[in-house]
Design goal:
The strands form 5 sheets. Strands 6, 9, 10, 11, 13, 14 and 15 form a 7-stranded antiparallel sheet that branches. The protein is of the alpha+beta class. 30% of the residues lie in helices and 28% in strands. The two termini are 51 Å apart.
Length: 533
Amino acid sequence: MTSPPLQTWLLLKNLSLFEIISQCTLKDSSINKRPFHHLCTLMRKMGAQSLWIDEFNPKFDSEIAFEVDHLKSFVKDISEINSFKLYFVREQVTDQNKDDLSKLTFLSYSSIINYVSTSKSNSYLLFSFVTVPKKYNLYKGKSVPLTNYYFHSIRDYHFTFRSHDGRKAKFTITGAPFFQKNEITSFCIQTALATLLNQADNNDTLILPVHINEIVGLSKSQCLAGGMDIKKTKKVIEKSGFFAKEFNFHVEGTDKLFKNLKKKYDLNPSGIIYPWMESGFPGFIVFQTKRGDLHAVPIIGHTLNTDKWDPEADIRYRRNVRNHFRSVSAWVDNYIIHDDNFGMYLCYPPDKLEEKKWKHGYLVNYVLFMTKLKTIKSPDTIEIGLIELIRNFLKEISGLTKDNPWLYKIKHDLNAPLVSRTIAVTNEEYFKHLKTPDSYNEVIHDDLRKKICTRMPEKFWLTEITLPDLYIANKTVLINYVSDLNTGELLFIRLPKYCFLLGKERAPEVTVLNTLGHFPLYSLDHDTETFDW
């Protein structure tokens, strides 16, 4: 067993990747060290300059102690077991600044478990909290390649760093926790569920993969056999206070849905699951490996490539798509996932979701999302219906389009498809969003904003309709639809110059707006940097 230096900060410029990993893992070559490699590589990319390795303290590190005790009860012949904590820091820590811990930028906090028994030895990442990838110290006048990452299942995790001389520093990691299976108390589905449940639960108690076995009530023999199928997975979700929305790729109903949407609207499976992911519903993909095993990877977010050629080109050059529209998912070039075999914040191409149909590669079995509501109207159904509604609406009300150049362009520019985006939002968030100025710097009056949101439920589907150039270059939209999250009932329409308040029990109310232009795409406030033209 290795003995890392415990009294000093390690400067990463003096250490190779191999040296870092060898400090805190077993030397057994059979151990899956890819997640360790990826963690260290990610820290290098993000500019980490210092590393602290420490042994865990049962007095303070109760989660690690809980895992260690469970391992001992499962593997009776363990001869040695220990755990190390790793803290990667952005700054170079030296004798001159190491006493001021409050000025350190903690990029990650991880725990590694090592154990040796007569039959098996192993090292694995019990957990790894890594801040979402960010860029630091961009030099003026230099070209720096940047990527566009959008995270939808992340939150703040608060920790305390303790040095050996008694000093403490509180720090926060904003991201999604990563867990690695140990094939004794946890397998991939437990690690995926642990990630999702921690994202959905804002209390300070860390849910470990081993806790999943307790929630579902697995015996030790069932745990050692993996013990988790789709039925038990849904049981864990239900017992945790959620409902499961499942897209089963090999059930006739779902397969027929995929085929119909592809044929009629050129909408692939990625476009169907996209609204759930971007709305922040925790979810994961389960696919079949070449050995026939099922593997689960939690979805954290997506990347965006606004220079993609095919979203507009396909629909213009060769495809007769009903209602002539594109979902914003067409510009998604990757979903951001965790994979307990490889590491955190990895990119999963959306076209892998379709390979089940071709019987090769990643044979996706199902995609599952967690929701607080049992019944939710499918957003792809709402979105398609609303696209058709606006097409028909503008045909019938020609006077409205004459008054506004943007509505006129939607009606008459047959080459440009409409772009649609549907996302679940809260009333409070939408109230703030309505205050953002349009392209003419006009803002909806406060009294009208209050009236609109008073009529809205606490949470609803927001569908945004725009044109490709406005979406790609301006990040702005022309039309807002608000629909009931449960029933899909249309409640509100906002157009340039006009808005409509609707409802079964009331006559439609039409209001002439002072906002005549396009207005910003809905987004939540966040500190994560993104880059686009």
